[in-house]
């Protein structure tokens, strides 16, 4: 192997290592838990608040157990509150109408 190829290979290896270790700092969550963007905050808060009310809990407790995954459809946005790893329970889905901002559908995997 030539010295130039060795330097390139070493630089790529170090770059990949740094990326693997630093990416959680920039993403904020493990990659398996990233399922929404900054513009989804209002629908996520609505879904978490509704699930908290249904379970007589506060939103902070719901956020400890669930993380949101958001899907945008033509006339509605759906939020699934997925369970964090190692947590047992239900994972509800709330669909919010784009125009009214109200919940129009709700699903729970245990009902």
Q: Averaging pLDDT over every residue, what do you get? A: 79
* CA-based gyration radius: 20 Å
Euclidean distance between termini CA atoms: 62 Å
Largest sheet: spatial strand order? 1-2-3-4
Task: Describe the main β-sheet briefly.
Answer: 4 strands, antiparallel
Query: Can you count the beta strands?
Result: 4
What oligomeric state do the depicted chains represent? Answer: single chain
Q: Helicity level, as a percent range?
A: 40-55%
Uncertain runs? 22-32
Question: What series of H and E elements makes up the topology?
Answer: HHHEEEE
The 3D shape can be described as elongated
In words, what does this structure look like?
The chain is of the alpha+beta class. The chain has helices at 3-27, 41-54, 59-65; strands at residues 66-72, 76-83, 93-97, 103-107. The protein has a 4-stranded antiparallel beta sheet. Helix 2 (41-54) crosses helix 3 (59-65). Mean pLDDT is 79; it is low at 22-32.
Write the topology of this structure.
Blueprint lengths: L2 H25 L13 H14 L4 H7 E7 L3 E8 L9 E5 L5 E5 L4
Antiparallel strand pairs: 1-2, 2-3, 3-4
Helix pairs in contact: 2-3
Outline of the structure:
The protein has 111 residues and is of the alpha+beta class. The protein contains three helices and four strands, in the order αααββββ.
